[in-house]
Design a protein that fits this description.
Glutathione S-transferase Yfyf (Class Pi), Chain A, domain 2, 55% helix, globular, 4-stranded mixed sheet, 8% strand, binds glutathione, Glutaredoxin
Length: 226
């Protein structure tokens, strides 16, 4: 049977939601972050060569990397509808958001997070210098990319209810982590009504409610200011 190794406040929430959406049989093993480093604990790091969450094990197979896991799990559930097949009207839209989540959104958010950490953990006057330089990086590179993504989300979610199209797909499931990270930072406050409606929509899904109950944490994402 497939086992999900779920690290609290991590991207493995995606796989928890996926398995609930599929009504799959699986074993759940939960891990807390290391209280000192906030990283995955040693027994989690030992699971896979990357040492990152999520990880699933299935017999002899050990698989890391969110979207690889989503595709692997969906291969075992061919009729699920969570991955529109070639030729389906929502196929391209699903593919776009499934890959943009990791390739564009999370990469930009990751850079932004590292810049903020460097600024906040550097002594003055280095912190002041970094703020000036990184402010330009945000203005010229990061913010335009993030704004373009959020604007496109707003437009697409005005046409169809889910990132994957008419129905929930793996695109919505992989976007859940960076979307909650963005929402926690106030990105959508007072704007992006279609994006806000998407949050309301997914939070009413029985699979999402079940995943949140199993996760049993006050929020989904990790924050360095905890
Ligand atoms: N692209 C990878 C990213 C994995 C990743 O960075 N996971 C974070 C959790 S959100 C992690 O494991 N952090 C703890 C650590 O690095 O020890 C994926 O989607 O699986």
């Amino acid at each position: 049977m497939l086992t999900l190794h779920h690290l609290e406040y991590s991207q493995s929430f995606r796989i928890l939601w996926l398995l609930e959406a599929l009504d799959a049989e699986y074993e759940l093993k939960c891990y807390d972050r290391d209280p000192e480093s906030n990283l995955a604990p040693d027994d989690y790091k030992a699971l896979s060569p990357l040492g990152t969450a999520p990880v699933v094990t299935d017999g002899d197979l050990v698989l890391a990397e969110s979207n690889a896991i989503i595709d692997y799990v969906l291969d075992a559930h061919p009729g699920s509808g969570l991955r529109p097949a070639a030729g389906h009207p929502d196929r391209a839209r699903h593919l776009f958001w499934f890959h943009a989540a990791q390739g564009s959104l999370m990469s930009a958010q990751g850079i932004a997070m590292v810049l903020t950490l460097l600024e906040s953990r550097s002594p003055w006057p280095i912190s002041a210098l970094l703020k000036a330089v990184f402010g330009q990086v945000r203005k010229i590179f990061l913010n335009p990319r993030l704004d373009a993504l959020f604007d496109l989300m707003e437009e697409d979610l005005g046409k169809k209810p889910f990132f994957g199209g008419d129905n929930l797909t793996g695109a919505d499931i992989t976007l859940v982590y960076p979307m909650y990270a963005a929402r926690d930072k106030g990105t959508f406050d007072g704007k992006y009504p279609n994006v806000s409606a998407w949050f309301d929509r997914i939070e009413k899904l029985p699979s999402f409610i079940a995943a949140r109950a199993k996760d049993n944490r006050p929020r989904i994402t990790f924050r360095f200011d905890d």
